[in-house]
Amino acid sequence: MKKIMMAVIAASAIALFDGCTSSTSCDAKKSDCLLFKSEGIASEKTGWRLKRSEAGKIVYIPFEGYYESKGGRIESQKIDLKGAKYCKMTFKAKAEVDGLWWVDLFDEKGNLLPDMNSRLYQSEEWKEYSVVVPVIRYAKSAQLAFVSKKGVSVKDVTFTKIPNCAAAKWCDDFYATLPQLNYEAPASSWDKLPKSKEKLISGKPLRIVLLGDSIMNDTYCGNLSALVQREFPNVEFIISVRGSTGCWYYYEKDKFEEYVTRHNPDLVIIGGISNNVGCNDDVAFERMVTTIERAKAAGIEVCVATPPPSYEWRTSPDDVKWNEEDCSYPPKNATRGFKYFRRGYQEKAVKQTGVTLWNVSTPPGKVIANSRKPLDWFKRDAAHNDDRGKQLIARTMLEYFRAAKKK
Predict the structure, then answer these.
(1) Residue 81 reports pLDDT greater than 90
(2) Which residue ranges does the chain devote to CATH 2.60.120?
(3) Alpha helices in 108-177 (DSSP H)
(4) Fold type of domain 13-162
(5) What are the tens digits of pLDDT across the range 16-50?
(6) pLDDT tens-digit map of 212-225
(7) Count of other CB atoms within 10 angstroms of residue 371
(8) Which CATH class is domain 168-405?
(9) What contacts 89, CB < 8 A, 6 or more positions away?
């Protein structure tokens, strides 16, 4: 049976740290608070737990859906988040094949919340990582993990509470290494969101629910909130997702209450790639209309975000064509990826209900198409983006928020 292979050294130690400062200055290192530190190579003998691989088996992965097992896993003890809104994790790793770093979050009752994870790169040498994750509103504790189908070694792990501005700065530094987005959202993007726009511009608290699937979770995990809060400090995002799920599920009254109204949002953004999963476009349209109307009846404004990049649509790195018609109405010979960009039913639903539509497909899609990067360069698995893809999606969403300032 396959398992994660971990080297062991006796001198390793794990520590949890108290005494977090309330400073928010990005220039002051006092603003950071070390929550967890594991020196040396992570192993069962140094306080980590090993879970054996189920590679090849289809399993249910919370907040993603049914996929092949991502492999064996080594995980830390639970870590008190001490009110953190963002955390930076640093570590060194080497792996036989690509794997995942993973952060699970838990509420005060120990219930699992939407996770954060991204790509570990195959490497025979120790590779250094520095990653930043947003902390969900209800999260009280976290568990760090490293996942692989064939083997991964990890050492010198730290997990640090950081201020919002430091998270945004991390995004800037990372984004500078990527192909750049060339997009400005139209000023009309907020015309059908007057109450939310007024709160956004005036600086009043604005609470937004991001509703969807694991792809919507990736949108949030691109540290969208840090980027937006740097310019609009009183915006609060609540991620509310279920793996491989869309409006065909959320339209039911009890589900809508559980995933939307109980959070008391001003605005709900419906997104992801799963709103037409398991149903034809006519049913997807009907369920989306019902979901939108439930929100409007509750006094919640609505934005529908088109499907961002997920499954690969390119046939090679030289396939630089981005065809809007293919995305809206895929021809019979379209690659698998285009199926998930279909948005004709969304366009019809927003027209009937009078809500707004943000195009989160085309701007990052064009960047990926023109990049000539390898087919898996923006991804961590077949369906999901890694930090590169997540950052492109978050930057596209940021442009829509910036459009609120336009006249």
Answers:
(1) yes
(2) 13-162
(3) 164-175
(4) Jelly Rolls (2.60.120)
(5) 333 343 334 454 455 689 999 999 999 998 899 98
(6) 999 999 999 999 99
(7) 18
(8) alpha beta
(9) 101, 103, 129, 130, 131, 132, 133, 144, 157, 158, 159, 160
